[in-house]
Amino acid sequence: MKRPCFAALLCLGCALPGFAQGTTDTTKSTSTLFLARTGIRLDSPHVGTYHYLEIIQSRGRWVYPDVGYYDGATNDYRELFGGGGRTLIENKRMTFVQELLFDQAFGPAARSARYLVPWTMLKFRFTRKFTNETVYFLYLPLNNSARIQQFPERVKFEYALQKRWKAGVGYGGYQYGDAAWQHKPFLTTTISTKAGAFEFWLQRMPGGAQIQFRYALLHVSHN
What we know:
Blueprint: E1 29-41, E2 48-59, E3 62-71, E4 78-90, E5 94-106, E6 114-125, E7 130-141, E8 149-162, E9 165-176, E10 182-193, E11 196-205, E12 208-222
Antiparallel strand pairs: 1-2, 1-12, 2-3, 3-4, 4-5, 5-6, 6-7, 7-8, 8-9, 9-10, 10-11, 11-12
């Protein structure tokens, strides 16, 4: 199964300041988060690494539905996924969200692999300006063509330089089966506007580096 350097499945942004996926200010509100992401290699010929789209709705502490699409910037491998979960802890200093998703891969390189994907997000607010966000998920095989995979997708530390501008550093990783770990540290900056949050990653990857473009738009409706 071919994977891009980032292989970003199910990584649920939280790029908007003050927004912890799966939470709202009141149980009578519904939050809808739209995510769009892509990556491009920095070495010639600057090919794409992935495309990613996701929509998540949160109702109080419950997160459902969570549906999305991913591909490796080719027609050889694609994924559709869906599921939901719940915010288990939410307070001034910490947010803990747990989800469970079903993932179906398709395309010539996918061999119809199917997975159950536990997805975990843990966020710490050390100060008003300094935060940490960790996202980890695991691919659990559901058929013979699937292989176990681990994704510490991001362990990210950010500091708010201004009200709408954050900068930070982080670590990403990937392991396929019992193969060696791929280590993918990155630098990040996020600019928040009324039209959404625009996040940019400069990330090391096997054989080079890539730049990621990440967009997040949050809408909250009060019932």
